[in-house]
């Protein structure tokens, strides 16, 4: 299944940018591929941002320890690639792996955020960002892969 959408929310900039996102879901494997293309002709700041559900936590794939969302973790990603495992916060069970590739160098950060399931509710959550400055056009390629549990086959 494929969905393609774009917006021109940055048309007001002196050097306008159009954001196009393509989502591809492989129903057999459960893998979701997201391609973001930021078209333009100038040097711009950029941020790719993902907010996790409050019942999840992030772990860098090169670390055995989950990241506490109340402490900001920031690392420079010279090849603009960072893999993160998303776990069930209650059980530690790995749920999905997220890998992001970008045309430019970026700084990866984990930050405290909030989510709401209903009006007036606020739950502490985790946000993941990849940000930097680059000459556009710029592309992000994100792959979200389900992780099979012991005795289970990935969808």
What does the oligomeric state look like here? Answer: single chain
String of helices and strands: EEEEEEEEEEE
How would the global form be characterised?
globular
Distance between the termini: 15 Å
Discrete helix count: 0
Mean pLDDT across the residues is 85
Rg on CA atoms, Å: 17 Å
Q: Strand order of the main beta sheet, please?
A: 1-2-3-11-8-7-5
**What proportion strand?**
over 45%
Low-confidence residue ranges: none
Give the fraction of residues assigned to helices.
under 10%
Task: Profile the largest sheet.
Answer: 7 strands, antiparallel
Count of extended strands? 11
**Which structural class do you get from the secondary structure elements?**
mainly beta
Textual characterization of the structure:
The chain is mainly beta. It contains no helices and 11 strands. The protein has strands at residues 2-10, 17-25, 32-39, 43-51, 56-60, 73-77, 82-88, 94-102, 106-115, 123-135, 138-146.
Topology overview:
Blueprint: E1 2-10, E2 17-25, E3 32-39, E4 43-51, E5 56-60, E6 73-77, E7 82-88, E8 94-102, E9 106-115, E10 123-135, E11 138-146
Antiparallel strand pairs: 1-2, 2-3, 3-11, 4-10, 5-7, 6-9, 7-8, 8-11, 9-10
Descriptive labels:
11 strands, 155 residues, 0% helix, mainly beta, 60% strand, seven-stranded antiparallel sheet
What's a quick, concise take on this entry?
The chain starts with a strand and ends in a 9-residue tail after the last strand.
């Amino acid at each position: 299944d494929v969905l393609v959408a774009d917006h021109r929310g940055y048309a007001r900039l002196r050097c306008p940018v159009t954001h196009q996102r393509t989502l591809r879901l492989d129903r057999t494997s459960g893998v979701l591929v997201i391609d973001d293309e930021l078209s333009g002709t100038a040097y711009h700041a950029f941020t790719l941002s993902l907010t996790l559900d409050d019942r999840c936590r992030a772990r860098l794939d090169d670390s055995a320890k989950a990241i506490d969302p109340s402490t900001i973790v920031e690392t420079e990603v010279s090849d603009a690639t960072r893999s993160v495992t998303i776990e069930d916060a209650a059980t530690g069970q790995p749920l999905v792996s997220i890998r992001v590739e970008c045309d430019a160098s970026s700084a990866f950060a984990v930050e405290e955020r909030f989510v709401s399931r209903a009006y007036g509710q606020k739950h502490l959550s985790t946000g993941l960002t990849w940000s930097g400055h680059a000459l556009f056009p710029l592309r992000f390629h994100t792959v979200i892969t389900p992780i099979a549990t012991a005795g289970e086959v990935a969808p």
